[in-house]
Design goal:
7-stranded mixed β-sheet; alpha/beta; 22% helix; 9-stranded mixed β-sheet; single chain
Length: 254
């Protein structure tokens, strides 16, 4: 296991240590039931995986507080049975292990305040700690120019990087880091185990933060089983993929 620091924050698998807060993003609890309603038969396997990964991260972290950076649940306009069950259980689980739980509103969270009220929590539009401002990233705040913190931490994008080996393409969840206006920006991967996310090399950015930033100049940090791999900048990866040889991340120098 290795640790990578970005602008004073520390990558810990799919989580980020920011001050005394452990940050995770985009859980999308209840996603399987939403897919089932669409006729896509997916077994309900995600919650135990989220619980196991949270426990593994918690055992490796000294943070006493946790931030869920948006999209705790998946459905927009309702709270499904699976969501009720899993969100309440998960918050109860976190209460036993952390002194403070911060819920940040994501674009999938119009009804999350109802769940928060039942668990004695509040839902915040954003949250500041030290020199970091944590927000979901689905929209740029109107008064963003007034943010005093030097580093913005967002989710929403679900970034991954597609690594090709011969004819096979494998997606690896990743963090992105770079500039946004006069600030530094960290983009977190999803804490979701149904999909790996959006390939930053082949798909258009979703977050307005990434659309406005110099997308190709962002640094890519792949994460896999508590290991962090620096892949270089997006533009570098795009150039490498055009080379006649196959790209192998094991040969990257860190």
């Amino acid at each position: 296991m290795n640790y990578t620091n970005i602008y004073g924050a520390k990558i810990l698998d799919l989580a980020l240590e920011v001050e005394d807060y452990l940050v995770i993003s985009d859980l999308h609890l209840g996603y399987e039931e939403a897919l089932n309603y669409q006729g896509i038969m997916v077994p309900k396997f995600q919650y135990p995986k989220i619980l196991k990964r949270t426990e593994d991260i918690h055992l490796r972290s000294d943070c006493s507080r946790i931030i869920i950076n948006g999209d705790l649940k998946h459905e927009f306009g309702k709270i499904s049975r699976q969501e009720w069950k899993e969100t309440i259980k998960f918050i109860d689980y976190l209460k036993e292990r952390f002194q403070e739980i911060i819920l940040i509103k994501g674009n999938h969270d119009p009804l999350t305040p109802i769940i928060a009220e039942k668990t004695g929590l509040d839902v915040h539009p954003q949250f500041s700690t030290g020199n970091f401002m944590v927000m979901h990233g689905d929209k740029i705040p109107k008064k963003s120019d007034e943010i005093e913190e030097q580093t913005i931490v967002i989710g929403h994008e679900h970034p991954s990087v597609g690594i090709r080996s011969g004819e096979r393409m494998e997606k690896v969840k990743c963090f992105l880091a770079g500039d946004f206006r006069d600030k530094k920006m960290i983009v977190m991967p999803s804490f979701n185990f149904i999909t790996e996310g959006s390939d930053v090399l082949h798909e258009k950015p979703l977050s307005p933060f990434l659309k406005e930033s110099n997308h190709g100049d962002l640094d890519v940090f792949g994460v896999e089983n508590f290991e962090t791999f620096y892949f270089g900048k997006i533009n570098h990866l795009l150039r490498v993929q055009q080379e006649p040889y196959h790209y192998d991340p094991h040969f990257i120098e860190f």
